[in-house]
């Protein structure tokens, strides 16, 4: 069935059924003018991220269910990067009138699957007509202590969660129409169904880690943003970058570049003293790797060093919308 | 300048400059992974609304500044309909790469103009590439007491703020290319720069009014939704509907229909006992008119009566996205 046959209000009822009853704290969920929930926290955290068809995804590469998961995941990642606890999501959906209703049911099922893992309520949204599929999710959460981009200090260690480059590698393979096997399946998964570092972000907040950012636009690009916000520089040690092993296997010489600039890894990058980083590393449920150091010179500038301390060229700085060299970008054209 | 020349991060800096310093409660505004603010309220309220080019607006009819105002206004209206106090807005923006940067500056100026009137902070957002202009604003606020759609009771009076039909009349004139004079200028204004009933919504909440909804999809359509949510019916008195005088002047026989089903008036409809409605009417800074009564029969059904109590035909029920008769709708094609 097409959405033009079911209509806006039929769609909202369908979404309401899939989402089910909200948690006890939610006073008003889907179906009123606004969502309402109880909160005793003093700090409220909110973020929004849009995914546009043929810009961020194509339905040939990503299933509806994966798209729903990912739309929620990218917002969870932003809340995690601030050290927040996610609470409620609002889903703003733009749809062509011939969009398949069963696909949209799967989209919501994908969102609900991830939402349940982190006790997040999908509490409202908006459905409108649009020329392509457009998904804008907003997420609201709470925090006791927040971790911004702006407090990194010279001599801080730079650490990252997880392994890098997998998402961009998966996207490259999807775009080239390559088949995935048991070695490369995690690359596809990293791109279409990223797992947000929600728990890890809260570990950062509980330990009052100085600065953090999520790696959505690429390691170098996002580290540059953190450096600019903190008025510091950074050096990265190329040989310490935790590249996903399957990226090495498939992309060989290109693997480092994918890990540095590929984007969409949704890992967390954070900085603090050696002692704090070591402590946090012990508490984290995922691998944590020290990959560099914050410096006092050249605010915003990231330098890449090889194992002999010699500077290496940085090819590109990560994903930017509207950038002139869009064709060269790892994201969908 | 086009956005492809300025780039995503240049745009974000431009928006940051226009928005300026956030209020004292805002700990982190535009420029980090998420926005953060302090809140001591126990109830949090959130809503989201998307405006899509050539669906909700065309830039030939609406200036960038008006579009910015309206994108914020429709969200303020939703928060008002719940009796909430607006606090922070997040702006998710999809843009073609040839979008004019000066236009976008005006868009933000329009948002800021309205935001300042209600002490709302534009605290974050997202900018992405898209095939048409897409604006999805989310707004978060607080409340001590909320007013839902679901608590209307039989024998409640039905009341509305302000005058109806002006927005749809203005849109009709814009689409027909008619010129506006001093009489009809308010019709254009009602469509492109609606004034949200934020203060009025808080009066409803303070007086613990039973049920409310904002009139975004048309009086009859939105009243039907309130009736369905409350499991009640309603009768409307046609001769009591407060039609904007300029709608009468220009649209004559069609005026009542525009007021009943035109949509986008962004007035508040609420229901309570005669005593409460009279009290609230005395406290409101705008006209309030009693236009009907909640009934116990036929849940969800709205009947229209003439001054002799005879039932009149209801032509259409209001705006719905993806509805088969889209061409007949007052909104942009």
Descriptive key words:
homodimer; alpha+beta; 60s Ribosomal Protein L30, Chain: A; Phosphoribosyl-aminoimidazole Synthetase, Chain A, domain 2; seven-stranded mixed beta sheet; four-stranded mixed beta sheet; 10 helices; 13 strands; 35% helix; disordered C terminus
CATH H-level homologous superfamily name of the largest domain in chain A: PurM-like C-terminal domain
Order the strands across the largest sheet of chain A as they lie in space. 8-10-7-11-9-12-13
Shape of chain A: globular
Number of domains of chain A: 2
Give the CATH level 1 class of the largest domain in chain A: Alpha Beta
Helix and strand composition category of chain A: alpha+beta
Oligomer: homodimer
Uncertain segments of chain A: 325-333
- Summarize the amount of helix of chain A as a percent range: 25-40%
Rg value of chain A = 20 Å
Largest sheet of chain A: 7 strands, mixed
Strand percent estimate of chain A: 15-25%
Termini Cα gap of chain A: 29 Å
């Amino acid at each position: 069935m097409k959405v033009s046959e079911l209509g806006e209000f039929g769609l909202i009822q369908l979404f309401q059924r899939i989402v089910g009853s909200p948690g006890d704290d939610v006073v008003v969920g889907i179906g009123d003018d606004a969502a309402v929930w109880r909160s005793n926290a003093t700090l409220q955290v909110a973020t929004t991220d849009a995914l546009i068809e043929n810009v961020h995804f194509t339905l040939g590469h990503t299933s509806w269910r994966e798209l729903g998961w990912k739309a929620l995941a990218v917002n969870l990642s932003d809340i995690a990067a601030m050290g927040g606890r996610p609470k409620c999501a609002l889903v703003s959906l733009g749809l062509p009138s011939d969009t398949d209703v069963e696909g949209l049911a799967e989209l919501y099922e994908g969102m609900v699957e991830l939402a349940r893992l982190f006790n997040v309520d999908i509490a409202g949204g908006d459905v409108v007509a649009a020329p392509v599929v457009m998904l804008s999710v907003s997420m609201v959460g709470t925090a006791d202590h927040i971790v911004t981009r702006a407090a990194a200090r010279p001599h801080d260690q730079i650490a990252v969660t997880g392994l890098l480059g997998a998402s961009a590698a998966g996207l490259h393979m999807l775009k080239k129409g390559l088949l995935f096997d048991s070695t490369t399946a995690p690359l596809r998964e990293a791109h279409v169904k990223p797992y947000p570092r929600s728990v890890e972000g809260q570990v950062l907040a509980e330990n009052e880690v100085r600065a953090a950012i999520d790696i959505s636009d690429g390691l170098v690009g996002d580290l540059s943003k953190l450096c600019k916000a903190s008025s510091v520089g950074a050096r990265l040690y190329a040989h310490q970058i935790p590249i996903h092993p399957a990226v090495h296997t498939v992309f060989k010489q290109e693997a480092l570049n994918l890990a540095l600039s590929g984007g969409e890894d949704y890992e967390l990058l954070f900085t603090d003293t050696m002692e704090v980083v070591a402590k946090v590393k012990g508490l984290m449920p995922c691998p944590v790797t020290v990959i560099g150091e914050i410096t006092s010179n050249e605010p915003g500038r990231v330098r890449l060093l090889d194992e002999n301390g010699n500077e290496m060229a940085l090819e590109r700085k990560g994903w930017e919308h509207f950038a002139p060299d869009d064709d060269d970008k790892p994201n969908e054209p």
